[in-house]
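Problem 3 from the worked examples.
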Amino acid sequence: MQSMSVESIQRYIDTNYQYLVCEDQSKIMAVIAIRDNSHLFHLFVSDTYQGKGLAKRLWLLAANNSITQGNTGYFTVNSALNAQKIYLKLGFTPVSEVRIRKGIKDIPMEIYLEPD
C-alpha cells in the first residue's frame, strides 16, 4: 500500500489528481481521488461512517466536478476484490475478469454517467 503513504499522496495532490476529503470535526470520514479527470483512484470511508451513503455522495460530487472540468461522463476504476460490491452499487460494470498486477488482484470496471 505504498500509494497510501503521506509522501505518495502529496505527489498525487501535486499532479493530475483531484482529492476530496469529508471531515467531521477534524476527523476524516471519507476520501476520494480522481486521476486524470477520469479514473477513480481512491475511495475510502472510515469504518465508523460506513453504511451512511458517504461513498455515493462523495463519488457523485467528484464525478460532477470532473464532468464540469470537461470529462464526457466516462470513468474507470480498478476495484479491489473486497470493494467490487460498492462499485457495482455505484453503477460501475466489470470490463474484464480478475487480474493480477505486481501481486495485487483487481477488477477493471467502468461507468458512463449522462451529464446533467
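Problem 4, a separate protein:
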Amino acid sequence: MSVRCIVCSKKHFPILCPNLCRENENSFSSPSKTEINSVTSNSSSGSTDVLLQTLRIRVSGPLKTKIVRCLCDSTSQRSYINRDLAEFLDLKIDHPEFLKHSLFGGIETEKIKHFAFKCELQKIRGNFSCEAILLDKEVICGTIPKISKSDAECFSKNGIYLTDCEKNDSDISVLLGADYLGKILTGSISQQPNGLTAVQTYLG
C-alpha cells in the first residue's frame, strides 16, 4: 500500500507530518491578521475623524466677553467651563462642589473640588442668551476635530451655516452637558447626503 501525505506529499501518514503543526499555526494566525487589516482599512477609508457636536458661542462675564468653542455632550450630567476662561472673564465663584466622576470602563475618581461660576451664554449672530452656572475644569477635553471646508459647504448649500468651521485651531472652553442641553435644543435636525447630521440649538 502506498501512503502519501496530503500536507507535504512525502511518504507518511498526514497525522505524522512535521509540517502539520506549522500549518495549524498559520491557519489560526491568519484570521487575526485579516481582522486587523480590515479594521485598519475601515479606519483609513475616507476621513478618520469622527465629528462631535461643537459650535462657537459668546461667553460673557460682568465686564468681559469672549467667543469660544463649545462642545455639546449629552452623556455628561453637568456643564463645565475652562478655568483659564473663567479667570479671563473675571467670573465670581458662586459656590464650591465636590463631585466623583464616572469614566469610560466603569472607573470612578475620588471626589474632586470644583468651583461653580455664573456666566451668560450668547449666540454669536442673534439675540438669544441664557444664564448658566458652569463648573470649572483645568482641561475639558483633548483635541476635537473641526468640519472640513467641503462638508461645511454641503450644509451651506442647504441654508445651514455652521459656526465652528474656522481654520484656526482652538481648545474646547465650554462643555454643555445634559443639565443645559435640553433647554437649548430646538428639535431641528438636518441629515445631509454626505452622511453628516446637523443638530440645531438656540445658540447656533
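Solution to problem 4. Residues 23-46 have pLDDT under 50 and may be disordered. The beta strands are 54-60, 65-72, 80-82, 93-99, 112-122, 129-137, 172-176, 185-191, 197-201.
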